[in-house]
Predict the structure.
Amino acid sequence: MIILKSAREIAVMREAGRIAAQVHEELRKAIRPGITTRELDALAERLIRQAGAIPTFKGYRGYPASICTSVNDEVVHGIPGDRVLREGDIVAIDLGVTYKGYVGDCAYTWPVGQVSPEVERLLQVTREALERAIAECRPGKRLGDIGYAVQSYVESHGFSVVREYCGHGIGANMHEDPQVPNYGRPGTGLVLRPGMVLAIEPMVNTGTWMTRVLPDQWTVVTADGGYSAHFEHTVAITDQGPEILTLP
Ligand code: CO
């Protein structure tokens, strides 16, 4: 069941989204060789609570932290811990905040110091894939148009799109219908309507799209050990077109 949001609800989601984006900006400044992912998690939780919001992920299905930190071949849902970030790593930070009962969800992947040209290109392509997906978020377009925008762009650059994890509807709950795959055929699937709010989150790998889950039951890694990047925004579909709600 798809829950359409009123203009008033979207206004609250914009506030939640702004908090999420502002926390991301602070995390970005904190990223440097030598910092642990646990330190990033602690900083995020403090900033989220200072803003009067709740870290949506903490306790979600038993998830133990406020953010996900997925390093190098980790695709999503990496759990913050003792891991020390090193020069040349990439770290995907995913965070959700609940504010006044609504959720903002967004993710960025950052380089730690200098990274290889191929990894730099992976970050650029994934970021651009998200932009292209967002451009499809207008009334009358379909879910397949979003997936196609991501898949066609990513594959034309020689990278692959993760299939086992998708974007999602979002609102009072982090995960609502529909699922938003990052692959698809244009002109197919659900028709987008004003009031829909979607979390769009391409996950892109340098090698195979296939993944596996580590024994911690959370961390998703690429099956071949290739690098993976992840960007996400919460986007409202309006009569005027897409509105990114997770902006600072
Ligand atoms: Co999400």
User: Anything to note?
Assistant: The chain has a mean pLDDT of 98. Residues 7-30 form the longest helix (24 residues). The domain at 7-244 is CATH 3.90.230.10 (Creatine Amidinohydrolase).
